[in-house]
Amino acid sequence: MIRSELLLDSTLRLDEVGWEEASSIAELLLIHVLNIKRYQLLLHPKLPIKDSDLDTFEELLDRMIKGEPLEYVTGLTEFYGIEMEIRPGVLIPRPETELMIDHAKRISGDGVRMAMDIGCGSGAITLALFEQRIAHEIVAVDVSEEAIRNTAANAAHQGFFRADPEREKLAADLPDNVALLQRTSLNPITKREHRDHLWLIQDDAFSVTFKPPIHPFPLILSNPPYVATHEWHDLPRHIRDHEPKVALEAGDDGLDVHRNLARRLKNWLSPGGAFVGEIGSGQGKAAVALHSQWAKRTELHRDYADLDRFVIAYN
Question: Is 74 inside any structural domain?
Fold first, then answer.
């Protein structure tokens, strides 16, 4: 079978089971299996496909026909230009969440020393903050062990490793649920080396016992659960049946986690510090009212589809 025939057949099969943008998904899956670039696929649509590659493609396609997301099938995703590993049981980063990084850039100006990512998941937000030089010491916390492991794997891909010679004793004395990673990188503008530190913490950030190892923070970001309970069964099958409910559902109105955040952010943020949080498209007014109870100033921002998506609150 040649490439174009396989793409047409797989597009039809994906479309039959309700996948939106089926042709794009089929194309991305074939590019992954063949380990080529998109332009190579477009330039050579009539090249035959090896039997081994065809078998692999059919195996992965079958998983998608059964509803499994492309990112879990390939084990890869991309966020803010960073190719990342993504594992089943960890929330898949969405394109609109990249706008949080743009807001963080605007707020931080030349950057801040410390930041916290609450509910870090795959580590997408954390690593984008590092790569964009928005912060140089970040606390990434998640209640899920699988999420922390996924973040650690992606951090390793970006050059982070355990053990800091300057903090060797501290690192050795850390509790089991805390890991301190570091890397040294070169600033392309100043040509000076600097050291980044990443605190990985598996914990419930809203428990009464949780205390960040460093604080206060000039910047805190969170893409928390915000799906209302009554909305759960209306989610697309590939989300509802495969992505972690604990990272999506947040009570009757979807704002339970934001209520927890609103009770704690003032204590975690430095004076003038900012919180950037993602919300559901119908939650803008309620989220602003909620965070206005503690913040000196709040802002509501929209996403690519012109829907309410982010609340920003200043301490």
Answer: no
